[in-house]
Amino acid sequence: MASENKLQEYAFEQMNLQVGGRIQLITHRTLRPMQHFSTVIGWVRDDYMIVKIPLENNGPIAITEGDKLTVRVFSGVNVCSFSTVVQRVFLRPLMYAHVAFPSEIQGTSLRAAMRVKVEIPAKMSRDDGSHASVFLVNLSVSGALIESAQPLSREGETVQLDFTLLAPPDDRQVRINTSALVRNATVVQSQKDGRDVFSYGVQFTGLDPAHFTLLQNLTYEAMLADRQKIV
User: Which end of the chain has the lower number of beta carbons within 10 A, N or C?
Assistant: First the structure.
């Protein structure tokens, strides 16, 4: 799990909130707080924010004026949260709510290279022209862990990686091609069949800025949807 620092105070601008950006709404109507996904529609500074009412079982979640909410936002390597109150609810067909503009925002800084568990086929190429099929088993904005059934490279060598990610919101395939520096190489035994598995920790050295953002989004989704994927 990513290591977290102590809580810090954040200004609204530091959350880098975007219209259409995904957030997490935590309701407190029951004994156990419930987490839901939502979208930012807009805001009027120091007055209110407009958020989409989350859906559950093909209908809007139960939310009424005066309800207390916690809003959680992941931005880059920061996770910010604030408490708010529902001011007004607009149901079908609009399905959005006005909530009070945050007066106090707290957050934590996560490890800059937080890794997400994945299972993505890729091709690794070396300077001598040789290449091999490998799997990415975890991924971050700064690098990846690669597994192969055969030895491929050595520490300190620069290789080329080619793999595909799915870009939201329509799962469009985006091809990633970047150079990477092999930082470490280890051999472990497979838990399935006992065979040797060759692992390589690599650091991206030529990542396109647009692909960097895509990897940030991958981490963001894992933070909100499935923290078990965080290494």
Answer: N
Sequence letter at residue 109: S
| 36, 50, 95, 143 from 61: Cα distances, Å | 9, 16, 10, 39
Token pair, residue 182, equals: 């092999």
* Helical H segments across the chain, by residue range: 209-225
Provide the whole-model pTM: 0.58
Distance CA 25, CA 19 (A): 16
Convert the pLDDT of each residue in 154-206 to its tens digit.
Answer: 899 999 999 999 876 567 899 999 999 999 999 988 777 778 899 999 999 98
Distances (CA, A) of 230 to 48, 85, 148, 222, 226: 33, 30, 22, 7, 8
Cis peptide before 93 (omega within 30 of 0): yes
Q: Which residues pair with 172 in a beta bridge?
A: 167
List CB contacts of 89: < 8 A, sequence separation 6 or more: 53, 63, 64, 65, 97
pLDDT digits 0-9 by tens, 201-227:
999 998 887 788 788 777 766 666 655
Beta-ladder partners of 51: 40, 97
Q: In 45-167, where do the E strands start and end?
A: 48-52, 55-56, 59-60, 68-75, 78-90, 96-100, 105-109, 116-125, 131-139, 143-148, 158-167
User: What is the distance between the alpha carbons of residues 199 and 152, in angstroms, rounded to a whole number?
Assistant: 9
